[in-house]
Write a structure and sequence with these properties.
This is Aminoglycoside phosphotransferase. It comes from Rhodanobacter denitrificans. Residues 67-261 form the Aminoglycoside phosphotransferase domain. 51% of the residues lie in helices and 17% in strands. The protein is of the alpha+beta class. It folds into 2 domains: 6-109, Phosphorylase Kinase, domain 1 (2-Layer Sandwich), CATH 3.30.200; 114-320, Aminoglycoside 3'-phosphotransferase, Chain: A, domain 2. Helix 7 (232-244) crosses helix 9. It starts with 5 loop residues before the first helix and ends with a helix. The model has no long low-confidence stretch (mean pLDDT 92).
Length: 323
């Protein structure tokens, strides 16, 4: 838990932005616990306005969790003009930020949508295509928000190679399949490092679980925009997580739905995507996923083998087909 009584905090420090009532916040659901935060859904007893309070779990007001939450709030404020007047695509509405009792609390309006993965399972093939195409359009709009001209930069291949070797190198060396995939990553990366690619302010954690949708609107979550980088560093993790997601069906039907979702997402993004660079970035992230799970302990090592290794093999095969 965050360690805070969120309704009590809001009732003493945050008035409803619609009716301006004080001390009228009541819970509408149990809190949702996340790795670095807790999510609380509340409603104004006077007018019925619904909000979400995201509380950091840091131990001090200067902790990384609290600082990151404040940055997320400020990012939402900066992005409001970019999505203003857009009925279909947007972000959460920032309402306020509190620093209290060694925690940060970000308050936003409630968007009554569901995660893309859950939404897609209910859809026909046509619905799956429309859903993920819209996710691609949303990301394109995010990348275009507050663009600072034509920033050209490389993929920082050396930095990625050094990270993999320093963090997971010994684990890769002990497994033939992982060793082969890592060698492919290094070889193709050195060839691609000469490319000058347009830089954008990247989302930083873009995946189907960080996008909500309703019948008419798509809203992105957990937007960081802390660094400038190649767009593939947002595209690649989304596509990887898409393949890890349950989009409905089993066997060949599930595979077709994943392929359709990927095609739709990339079509929605709409920019000229260098597929070799995308597959290379996907391989990088899939290697990171495998290594991170492998290091966590026996149970997560099983997940690394049964869930992440097939993703490594898939992305490596896709990259080899383009070299």
């Amino acid at each position: 838990m965050s360690g805070l009584d969120i309704p009590e905090v809001l009732n003493t420090q945050f008035a409803c932005t619609q009716c301006h009532a004080n001390a009228g916040w009541v819970r509408t659901a149990r809190p949702t616990m996340r790795q670095n935060s807790s999510i609380h859904r509340l409603q104004c007893a006077q007018c019925g306005a619904r909000i979400v309070a995201k509380a950091s779990r840091g131990r001090t007001a200067d902790s990384d969790d609290c600082a990151e939450l404040r940055e997320e709030y400020e990012t939402l404020r900066v992005l409001q003009p970019a999505f203003a007047g857009c009925a279909r695509y947007g972000t959460l509405e920032p309402l306020g930020f509190l620093a209290i009792a060694n925690h940060g609390v970000m308050i936003t309006g409630l968007f009554p949508g569901e995660e893309l993965e859950r939404h897609a399972r209910k859809q026909t093939a046509t619905g799956v295509y429309a859903t993920f195409r819209s996710a691609g359009v949303w990301l394109r709009k995010l990348h275009g928000a507050g663009a600072d001209g034509d920033v050209r930069q490389g993929l920082e291949v050396g930095k990625r190679i050094d990270y993999l070797k320093a963090t997971y190198g010994s684990a890769f060396a002990a497994d033939r399949k992982l060793r082969s995939a890592c060698e492919l990553f290094v070889r193709v990366g050195r060839d691609a490092d000469t490319l000058a690619i347009g830089g954008v302010r990247i989302h930083g954690d873009f995946k189907p679980g960080n996008m909500l949708c309703s019948a008419t609107r798509y809203v992105g979550l957990d937007i960081q925009r802390a660094t400038t980088g190649a767009a593939v560093y947002d595209l690649a993790p989304f596509v990887n997580h898409l393949w890890l997601a349950n989009l409905g069906g089993i066997g060949a039907r599930a595979r077709r739905r994943h392929e359709l979702a990927e095609t739709a997402f990339l079509a929605g993004f709409g920019d000229a995507i260098d597929m070799r660079t995308l597959r290379w970035a996907q391989l990088y992230f899939s290697l990171c996923y495998w290594g991170a799970y492998r290091q966590r302990g026996a149970l997560d090592a099983v997940i690394a083998h049964w869930k992440m290794l097939p993703l490594v093999e898939k992305t490596a095969a896709q990259l080899r087909a383009l070299t």
